[in-house]
Amino acid sequence: MMKLWGGRFTKSTDSFTDHFHSSISFDSRMYAEDITGSIAHATMLGKQGIIPQADADLIVKTLGEILLDIQEGNVSFDEKAEDIHMNLETILISRIGDVGKRLHTGRSRNDQVALDARMYTKKEIIAVQELLKNLMETLNDLAEKNTETIMPGYTHLQRAQPVTLAHHILAYVEMFKRDYARMTDTYKRTDVLPLGSGALATTTYPLDRDFVAEQLGFAGITQNSMDGVSDRDFALEFMSAMSIMMMHLSRFCEEIILWSSHEFKFIELDDAYSTGSSIMPQKKNPDMAELIRGKTGRVYGHLMALLTTMKGLPLAYNKDMQEDKEGLFDAIDTVKMCVPVFTNMIATITVRENNMLEAAKGGFTNATDAADWLVKQGVAFRDAHEIIGKLVLYCIQNNTNLDDLSLEEYQAISPVFNESVYAAISVKQCVEARNVTGGPAKEATTKVIATNKAYFATL
Ligand code: ARG
Prior knowledge:
Blueprint: H1 15-21, H2 24-27, H3 31-47, H4 53-71, H5 84-96, H6 109-144, E1 150-155, E2 158-164, H7 165-190, E3 192-193, H8 209-216, E4 220-221, H9 225-230, H10 233-259, E5 267-268, H11 287-311, H12 324-347, E6 350-351, H13 353-361, H14 367-376, H15 381-397, H16 407-413, H17 420-424, H18 427-432, H19 442-458
Helix pairs in contact: 3-4, 3-6, 3-8, 4-5, 6-7, 6-12, 6-19, 7-10, 10-11, 10-12, 11-12, 14-15
Bound molecules: arginine.
The site of arginine has 10 residues, from helix 6.
């Protein structure tokens, strides 16, 4: 097969080399973007009189036919034609001969691949955001059902203060809201047309880049051709946003794994989202959560790989940049599997409210509130801290907790205590008293849930 760039060569490439440098096995997934981009380019070439209008029309018509044929599974690509760009051009030329050879006027594969990758990334940002929105809505609904489900909040994985399951879940909703916003931001910088940059220094033809941008739905056009062909920030930014999002998902998975363990027993996973053991009949394993946690490393890896690939590249295009695609695609595929699996998994958990409540009651999660109660009686906070510390020690030594001590036991440590301490340190009261914006009280979380709903409706 004659290469589209074969003119200055006297020998054909080594067949293993063809295999080595070919990208068709993975960039074929950008066929629709490549064809749509070519249609806009050809339309512009005709409009500007750079190629005859009749030729432009035939190219546009034939590209449309090729698109349908690919969608129907009637086209096969050839590794020898290297990448999706040259495969499609080769097919075009095979169908309409010399007219097809005019398509690549005023264009390089360098700006072409940058265009395709941006179009593809734009599409996938929207797709990932849609999945994220579903996840956020699912979490917000679960929070709404659990504004009174008391559980221990932790620091250092030691029981710290009582919160509610709603409050805990809403913490993740905040993270996913930021992830969503980061992707919206990435979209803005991706939404810039690089076509017209040529190989690196634009072209001598009177291209109408704004027209192409409008045809393809880009908000703007790149302002430097060397940057236009060698910028992969959009892929890096999207992978960064996905990595951070996966980090959030992974933390949540870690908690799901802990909560569903026999040690915690806070939740039970639905059978549809757990697996058994081939040897231990009693096992119900949280494999989905573990896999999502595991795949997070894979997404980070792709980000690191591309950052590393880019770090030493002189301007402008270098073939190293072909390495951008597999990682980006795999990161997208991975995220698009993880988010819906997580969403369905969390939507189907059974909450063991009683176990959460019992755990909140144990572990002295109301110790801060007991100290605060003393402060309200006029004791200085440091002294209050000391008094409650002594009481906690007494409880540990006598295997009891603050709620179950008698008033005599309290007063033995400080005469300030009276009956009203009991109401102040009930876990329910500990939660309800924290009615600060951002706090766990039912009233505070209910407001956030409503604000979230209004926000989701704008997405
Ligand atoms: N397949 C190439 C890539 O993905 C397209 C651009 C090739 N350009 C070049 N001058 N070899 O980067």
